[in-house]
């Protein structure tokens, strides 16, 4: 049997895990855009209409050069058109992922992970609230079994997960954190089943609701 002190220890570890989860799910400030490199627009000793300001194309006009430039552009356009008609510019093979599809799948995966972390943080916050307001007064009336080690493990998993940020290890840690919090709630529900009076029913109902929201798809 455990008293209020053991519950307070568990709550302390759960609050530590909650702070880690909230910090991990907080939006990061956008990076400041890089300044474009400064380009030298003119060189000493060169002047005249052939040199333009930054951002404009620079072309040097020489006698007879305009006609040659025009013929070169026509030849380039013709060869490009012939390449398209002959199929030289072949599209990616069926088995090769397109860049836009890869980017889209990556974005969807990140969104799903953020949603799962937010749901985990919300369930942890709600659990701490129920333990402080409903479970602690009940435990002062009649001690019942608690498992503080599960809360310690939950805090450690969340701390390790926050260091990963992404990747397969991050997803494994997130899954383990889910399972650990699920175990904490289920053990509390089972412990309350042996309470000598019906005063445990509101607490048990609140815990079941947290578990249902945690596992919601």
TrEMBL record:
Region (Disordered): 18-107
Basic and acidic residues bias (residue ranges): 70-84
One Pfam family cited in the UniProt record for this chain: DLEU7
InterPro entries: DLEU7
Signal peptide: none
Compositionally biased region (Pro residues): 27-36
Protein name (Swiss-Prot/TrEMBL): LEU7 protein
């Amino acid at each position: 049997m455990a008293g209020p002190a053991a519950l307070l220890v568990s709550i302390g570890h759960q609050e530590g895990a909650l702070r880690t989860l909230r910090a991990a799910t907080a939006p990061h400030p956008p990076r400041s855009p890089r300044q474009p490199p400064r380009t030298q627009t003119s060189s000493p000793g060169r002047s005249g209409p052939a040199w333009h300001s930054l951002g404009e194309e620079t072309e040097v006009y020489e006698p007879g050069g305009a006609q040659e430039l025009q013929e070169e552009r026509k030849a380039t356009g013709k060869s490009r058109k012939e390449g398209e008609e002959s199929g030289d510019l072949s599209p990616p093979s069926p088995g090769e992922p397109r860049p836009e599809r890869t980017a889209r799948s990556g974005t969807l995966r990140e969104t799903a992970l953020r949603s799962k972390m937010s749901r985990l943080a919300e369930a942890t916050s709600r659990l701490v609230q129920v333990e402080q307001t409903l479970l602690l007064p009940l435990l002062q009336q009649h001690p019942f079994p608690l498992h503080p080690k599960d809360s310690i493990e939950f805090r450690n998993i969340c701390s390790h997960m926050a260091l990963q940020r992404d990747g397969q290890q991050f997803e494994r840690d997130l899954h383990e954190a889910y399972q650990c919090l699920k175990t904490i709630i289920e053990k509390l529900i089972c412990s309350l089943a042996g309470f000598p009076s019906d005063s445990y029913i509101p607490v048990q109902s609140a815990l079941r609701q947290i578990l249902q929201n945690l596992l919601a798809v």
